């Protein structure tokens, strides 16, 4: 979400007659207020109550004080990016009940207050990327009932609590790439019925619970590239009951063995699953296959196992056949012995 000066200039370049904060540019009829990179240490006073776009990006705010935007009931777009924000005080967004887009990217936020979403029920797009968030409190996002796009990429999030996204029933795009997630746990992605795109690339994910993806009935894109996955369970993706889901799995340290071959063979055979980057999936282990494309070697991965199975099968067949031959030989020998004994008995009786 970008709000360049070109947008403002395209609408009007004439300074309006309405009240305008000192050092800012205000545009007539459009109610757009450009306060970008003006050295502000706090949200400026004197903003028109009719303002619907306020750009405060590139300032030195450090924090957003309580009720800093009080009275701006008409505000629809608020840009606070790249402003060194470390703290949001309680009720920081008080009175912004009609806000639709909020950009807080490229700041220094380590946490979101528990009341972060209380006045943001109309927000459809929220950018929190390129901060230093370490975790998400369950209560921080629960009132974002209109949210459709949430960008949490390039943070330090290590764990998703069960129910972290509860209340986001309209969320369609969730970006969590370039964090420090180690696993995708069952319950962490629940209550996201219309989620279409989930980006989890460039994390440290080594494990995905079998039922973790099951609630995502509308998922069309799942990005898992650049993690630490060595193996997968086919059931994990079989739980995706969607019309079609595209998977991105390259850039992981795959252990290319027969089990992995079977999983990918099944994934490629399921009509509603599509591995977009299959030819870029490469092996890390075993060492003799390091760097090789799985698509080139997959047909050979089960050859040793197949050979072993064949050897065992042949051995068993030979053993069974030998036992049958021995049994038949013994039976015939016994029959001949019985006939000789009968002949001798008859001779003695005479």
Automatic annotation (TrEMBL):
Positions of transmembrane segments: 307-327
Q: Which GO terms describe its cellular component?
A: plasma membrane
Signal recorded as keyword: yes
Which region is the signal sequence?
1-17
Q: Which SMART domains match?
A: LRR_TYP
Query: Which Gene3D superfamilies does this chain map to?
Result: Ribonuclease Inhibitor
PROSITE patterns registered for this protein in UniProt? LRR
Source superkingdom: Eukaryota
Q: Which Pfam families match?
A: LRR_1, LRR_8
**Matches recorded under PANTHER family:** ANTIGEN BSP, PUTATIVE-RELATED, CHAOPTIN-RELATED
Query: What name appears for this protein in its UniProt entry?
Result: Leucine-rich repeat-containing protein 4C
Q: Which organism is it from?
A: Salvelinus namaycush
**What gene is it encoded by?**
LOC120044021
């Amino acid at each position: 979400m970008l709000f360049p000066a070109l947008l403002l200039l395209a609408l009007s370049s004439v300074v309006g007659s309405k009240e305008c904060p000192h050092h800012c540019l205000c545009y007539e009829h459009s109610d757009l207020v450009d306060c970008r990179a003006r050295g502000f240490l706090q949200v400026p006073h004197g903003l028109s109550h009719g303002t619907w776009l306020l750009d405060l990006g590139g300032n030195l705010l450090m924090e957003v004080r309580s009720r800093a935007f009080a009275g701006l009931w008409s505000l629809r777009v608020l840009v606070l990016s790249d402003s060194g924000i470390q703290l949001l005080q309680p009720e920081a967004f008080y009175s912004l009940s009609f806000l639709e887009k909020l950009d807080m990217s490229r700041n220094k936020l380590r946490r979101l207050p528990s009341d972060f979403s209380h006045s943001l029920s109309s927000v459809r797009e929220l950018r929190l990327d390129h901060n230093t968030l370490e975790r998400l409190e369950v209560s921080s996002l629960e009132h974002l009932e209109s949210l459709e796009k949430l960008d949490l990429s390039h943070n330090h999030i290590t764990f998703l609590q069960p129910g972290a996204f509860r209340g986001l029933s309209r969320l369609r795009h969730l970006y969590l790439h370039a964090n420090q997630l180690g696993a995708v746990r069952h319950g962490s992605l629940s209550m996201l019925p219309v989620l279409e795109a989930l980006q989890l690339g460039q994390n440290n994910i080594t494990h995905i619970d079998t039922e973790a993806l099951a609630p995502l009935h509308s998922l069309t894109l799942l990005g898992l590239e650049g993690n630490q996955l060595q193996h997968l369970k086919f059931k994990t993706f079989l739980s995706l009951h969607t019309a079609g889901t595209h998977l991105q799995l390259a850039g992981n340290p795959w252990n290319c063995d027969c089990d992995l071959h079977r999983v990918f063979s099944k994934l490629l055979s399921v009509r509603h699953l599509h591995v977009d980057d299959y030819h870029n999936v490469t092996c890390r282990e075993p060492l003799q296959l390091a760097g090789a494309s799985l698509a080139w070697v997959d047909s050979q991965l089960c050859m040793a196992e197949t050979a072993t199975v064949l050897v065992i099968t042949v051995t068993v067949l030979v053993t069974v056949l030998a036992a049958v031959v021995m049994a038949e030989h013994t039976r015939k020998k016994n029959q001949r012995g019985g006939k000789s004994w009968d002949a001798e008995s008859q001779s003695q009786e005479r």
